[in-house]
Design goal:
Layout lengths: L1 H31 L4 H7 E9 L3 E10 L2 E10 L11 E6 L4 E6 L6 E9 L11 E7 L2 E9 L1
Antiparallel strand pairs: 1-2, 1-8, 2-3, 3-6, 4-5, 4-7, 7-8
Length: about 150
Protein backbone atom coordinates (compact mmCIF):
# COMPACT_ATOMS: atom_id res chain seq x y z
CA UNK A 1 0.00 0.00 0.00
CA UNK A 2 2.89 2.36 0.79
CA UNK A 3 4.30 1.70 -2.65
CA UNK A 4 1.07 2.84 -4.36
CA UNK A 5 0.90 6.02 -2.25
CA UNK A 6 4.55 6.80 -2.90
CA UNK A 7 4.09 6.19 -6.62
CA UNK A 8 0.99 8.46 -6.69
CA UNK A 9 2.82 11.30 -4.89
CA UNK A 10 5.80 10.96 -7.24
CA UNK A 11 3.57 10.96 -10.33
CA UNK A 12 1.61 14.01 -9.10
CA UNK A 13 4.83 15.95 -8.38
CA UNK A 14 6.20 15.06 -11.81
CA UNK A 15 2.96 16.21 -13.46
CA UNK A 16 2.94 19.56 -11.63
CA UNK A 17 6.59 20.28 -12.46
CA UNK A 18 5.95 19.46 -16.12
CA UNK A 19 2.94 21.79 -16.37
CA UNK A 20 4.77 24.61 -14.61
CA UNK A 21 7.76 24.51 -16.94
CA UNK A 22 5.52 24.70 -20.03
CA UNK A 23 3.72 27.77 -18.65
CA UNK A 24 7.05 29.45 -17.90
CA UNK A 25 8.28 28.70 -21.42
CA UNK A 26 5.18 30.38 -22.89
CA UNK A 27 5.63 33.43 -20.67
CA UNK A 28 9.30 33.70 -21.60
CA UNK A 29 8.47 33.46 -25.31
CA UNK A 30 5.90 36.26 -24.99
CA UNK A 31 8.32 38.45 -23.03
CA UNK A 32 11.05 37.91 -25.61
CA UNK A 33 8.67 38.81 -28.44
CA UNK A 34 8.68 35.34 -29.94
CA UNK A 35 5.65 33.38 -30.99
CA UNK A 36 2.38 34.39 -32.59
CA UNK A 37 1.50 37.23 -30.19
CA UNK A 38 3.10 39.92 -32.39
CA UNK A 39 1.19 38.74 -35.45
CA UNK A 40 -2.11 39.06 -33.57
CA UNK A 41 -1.14 42.52 -32.29
CA UNK A 42 -0.47 43.68 -35.87
CA UNK A 43 -3.80 42.31 -37.07
CA UNK A 44 -5.87 43.87 -34.26
CA UNK A 45 -5.08 47.57 -34.02
CA UNK A 46 -7.16 50.47 -32.69
CA UNK A 47 -6.31 54.05 -33.64
CA UNK A 48 -7.83 57.27 -32.31
CA UNK A 49 -7.61 60.61 -34.11
CA UNK A 50 -8.91 63.76 -32.39
CA UNK A 51 -9.13 67.46 -33.14
CA UNK A 52 -11.06 70.56 -32.20
CA UNK A 53 -12.21 73.80 -33.76
CA UNK A 54 -14.12 76.75 -32.32
CA UNK A 55 -17.54 75.08 -32.20
CA UNK A 56 -16.83 71.44 -33.02
CA UNK A 57 -14.70 68.58 -31.77
CA UNK A 58 -14.15 65.35 -33.69
CA UNK A 59 -13.03 61.83 -32.84
CA UNK A 60 -12.21 59.24 -35.47
CA UNK A 61 -11.77 55.71 -34.14
CA UNK A 62 -10.46 53.02 -36.47
CA UNK A 63 -10.34 49.35 -35.49
CA UNK A 64 -8.42 46.88 -37.62
CA UNK A 65 -9.68 43.35 -37.43
CA UNK A 66 -7.50 41.14 -39.61
CA UNK A 67 -7.48 42.59 -43.12
CA UNK A 68 -10.53 44.87 -42.64
CA UNK A 69 -11.15 48.16 -40.84
CA UNK A 70 -14.14 49.59 -39.05
CA UNK A 71 -14.34 53.32 -38.52
CA UNK A 72 -16.50 55.50 -36.31
CA UNK A 73 -16.51 59.25 -36.77
CA UNK A 74 -18.06 61.32 -34.00
CA UNK A 75 -18.65 65.06 -34.45
CA UNK A 76 -19.37 66.79 -31.14
CA UNK A 77 -20.92 70.25 -30.81
CA UNK A 78 -19.02 72.42 -28.28
CA UNK A 79 -20.60 75.78 -29.13
CA UNK A 80 -22.80 77.93 -26.91
CA UNK A 81 -26.00 77.86 -28.98
CA UNK A 82 -28.78 75.40 -28.23
CA UNK A 83 -28.01 72.16 -30.09
CA UNK A 84 -31.71 71.85 -30.99
CA UNK A 85 -31.39 74.84 -33.29
CA UNK A 86 -28.75 73.12 -35.44
CA UNK A 87 -30.13 72.43 -38.89
CA UNK A 88 -28.58 71.92 -42.30
CA UNK A 89 -25.40 70.39 -40.87
CA UNK A 90 -22.91 68.81 -43.23
CA UNK A 91 -19.30 67.80 -42.86
CA UNK A 92 -16.46 66.44 -44.93
CA UNK A 93 -13.45 64.43 -43.81
CA UNK A 94 -10.38 64.36 -46.04
CA UNK A 95 -7.48 62.03 -45.41
CA UNK A 96 -6.53 58.49 -46.37
CA UNK A 97 -10.25 57.99 -46.98
CA UNK A 98 -12.54 60.87 -47.94
CA UNK A 99 -16.14 60.81 -46.79
CA UNK A 100 -18.88 63.34 -46.22
CA UNK A 101 -22.34 63.55 -44.68
CA UNK A 102 -25.11 66.02 -45.52
CA UNK A 103 -28.19 66.62 -43.41
CA UNK A 104 -26.63 65.23 -40.22
CA UNK A 105 -28.63 65.55 -37.00
CA UNK A 106 -27.15 66.35 -33.60
CA UNK A 107 -28.62 64.19 -30.83
CA UNK A 108 -29.45 65.15 -27.24
CA UNK A 109 -25.86 64.42 -26.21
CA UNK A 110 -24.71 67.08 -28.72
CA UNK A 111 -23.05 64.80 -31.25
CA UNK A 112 -23.60 62.97 -34.51
CA UNK A 113 -21.99 59.67 -35.49
CA UNK A 114 -21.08 58.12 -38.82
CA UNK A 115 -19.99 54.46 -38.87
CA UNK A 116 -18.57 52.36 -41.67
CA UNK A 117 -18.74 48.66 -40.85
CA UNK A 118 -16.00 47.15 -42.97
CA UNK A 119 -13.39 48.66 -45.25
CA UNK A 120 -10.12 47.69 -46.84
CA UNK A 121 -7.02 48.77 -44.92
CA UNK A 122 -6.76 52.55 -45.16
CA UNK A 123 -5.73 53.99 -41.79
CA UNK A 124 -3.78 51.10 -40.24
CA UNK A 125 -1.13 50.71 -42.92
CA UNK A 126 1.61 52.16 -40.71
CA UNK A 127 1.83 55.43 -42.62
CA UNK A 128 1.07 58.70 -40.87
CA UNK A 129 -2.31 60.13 -41.76
CA UNK A 130 -3.19 63.77 -42.24
CA UNK A 131 -6.90 64.22 -41.66
CA UNK A 132 -8.83 67.45 -42.17
CA UNK A 133 -12.43 68.00 -41.07
CA UNK A 134 -14.63 70.72 -42.55
CA UNK A 135 -17.99 71.41 -40.88
CA UNK A 136 -20.62 73.49 -42.68
CA UNK A 137 -23.52 74.89 -40.71
CA UNK A 138 -25.97 77.45 -42.06
CA UNK A 139 -23.50 78.81 -44.60
CA UNK A 140 -20.60 79.09 -42.14
CA UNK A 141 -17.61 76.79 -42.37
CA UNK A 142 -15.04 75.61 -39.83
CA UNK A 143 -11.96 73.52 -40.67
CA UNK A 144 -9.56 71.76 -38.29
CA UNK A 145 -7.03 68.92 -38.26
CA UNK A 146 -7.22 65.55 -36.54
CA UNK A 147 -4.07 64.10 -35.03
CA UNK A 148 -3.40 60.57 -33.85
CA UNK A 149 -3.45 60.05 -30.09
Amino acid sequence: MKFKSLFLVFFLALFLVGCGSDANANQNAKAAGNGDTNENDEKNIELLFTGEGDMWKAELTVVRDGDREKREFKLIYTGDEDYKSIEDLSYEVQGPEDFSVEGAKVNAMKYTVDKEKSKDLVYTTGEESEIEVTVDLAGESETFQLTQE
